[in-house]
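Notes from the 1:1 (GR / supervisor)

We went over the backlog. Supervisor wanted to see one worked example end to end before approving the batch request, so GR pasted a single chain during the call. The sequence is below; no edits were made to it. Supervisor asked that the structure be written out right there so they could see what the output format looks like.
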Amino acid sequence: MPYVKTRDGTDIYVKDWGEGRPVVLLHGWPLSADSWDPQMMALADAGFRAIAYDRRGFGRSGQPWSGYDYDTLTDDLADVLEATGATDGVTLVGFSMGGGEVARYMSRHDGKGIVAAGLISSVVPYMLKTDDNPHGTPEETLQSIGDGIKQDRAHFFRHTFFKQFFGVGYISSPVSDEVLDWATTTAMMAGLKPTLACAESFGHTDFRPDLAAFRVPTLIIHGTSDQTVPIDAAGRAAAVGIADSQLVEYDGAPHGLFATEGDRLTSDLLTFLGR
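Structure output shown during the call:
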């Protein structure tokens, strides 16, 4: 380590901090495992083993041409769990796109080794607006993300996407310009192909059939002012569909809770883990 080679030969960069009961953290698009650093430090300090990795195509992991569908991404997760020996008593926590990997792991791999789960600002259960998912995100909005990336990826991320992601307005901002710069730099470490392919995956994968596979206590945290993944089609819908779940709504909070509400998120995670 710090690299794990998946079943299709992709190198995955893994961070493994602390000792104790494992907590595996899955990052959001288009960032890397580093977005979880404050929570990982707190978990390790509290006696947990915190594991996070860069999704294929992002951060320091390999950038293969294919494998950005959720079945393959979830197989990557299974391979990381196996390689790190985190195969029992695991709490699996996914932020945004990472929530989809949590859901698909519960169904595709029968939740092997998982004793609890967390969905933070997650895309689960279904992000796309359809006739039977009226609170979802319109196809035109998802298409505009791809168009912005293709036209000028750096400008789109720095001046459009991450401002919405972190709830930056004309008058006030919950994060500094430096956080916006860091997020943009991190996003630009990803390959263009993975960036576009993963946007296609999280925007169009229907996780509603996966919800019944959640058979562990599940913490759901979502901001009520999340404009990136609106709460009605995500956190609130997931809470209805997952039997043993607890929904915690952060009033007025945007999508990027790990930065804007970091201390509260860390506290809620630790409380959940110590239940």
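Supervisor's comment: DSSP finds nine helices and eight strands in the chain.
Batch request approved.
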